[in-house]
Design brief:
The protein is an alpha+beta fold. It has two domains: 45 residues; 104 residues. It is 45% helix and 21% strand. The chain contains five helices and six strands; from the N terminus they run E-E-E-E-E-H-H-E-H-H-H. The strands form two sheets. A three-stranded antiparallel beta sheet has the order 1-2-3, with no helix packed on it. A three-stranded mixed beta sheet has the order 5-4-6. The longest helix has 18 residues. The chain is elongated, with a radius of gyration of 19 Å.
Length: 155
């Protein structure tokens, strides 16, 4: 593995552990040349699930795309990076558990929204506005009513 700092191919593994609910192996490494540490992940590569988009096009399932969407929805919200990573892990695990080759994009969006509803109300509405393609304030009100009716009273 090349060091991302000095680009030398001379490192040692200092720690190995399972990650992402068993879907990856996390390795801490230290470069033998510059002594800096970095982390690498090993993930399954064989199982490729494709997301079927609204226009019937297909693209490989991309956990980074989900993470970026969550980061945008949670921008300036009190949600830690670790919690966002946990949501991505949970969504990915559910996709791989329930689908073999293809998953509709609507199902992925619903899984993300379910997680966001529990995580942060504002982030949920932000994500819903893009995912459900709100056209005006009425769409926001309809979604908020639906959300508030389905969740228990919160402080």
């Amino acid at each position: 593995m090349r060091c991302p700092f000095c680009r030398r191919d001379n490192d040692r593994v200092t720690d190995t552990r399972g990650s992402e609910d068993g879907f990856a192996i996390r390795r801490r490494r230290q470069c033998n040349h510059c002594k800096r540490r970095f982390t690498t992940y090993e993930r399954l590569d064989d199982v490729v699930i494709h997301v079927v988009k609204k226009d019937d096009s297909r693209e490989p399932f991309d956990r980074e795309k989900i993470r970026r969407g969550l980061e945008r929805a949670c921008w300036k919200r009190p949600v830690s990076a670790e919690r966002l990573q946990a949501v991505v892990d949970q969504v990915e695990a559910q996709v791989y558990e329930h689908y073999d080759r293809e998953v509709p994009s609507q199902k992925v969006g619903e899984l993300v929204m379910r997680q966001l509803a529990e995580l942060d109300q504002v982030a949920y509405v932000r994500f819903a506005s893009v995912y459900r393609e709100f056209r005006d304030a009425r769409d926001f009100v309809i979604e908020l009513r639906s959300y508030l009716d389905s969740t228990p009273n919160r402080p």
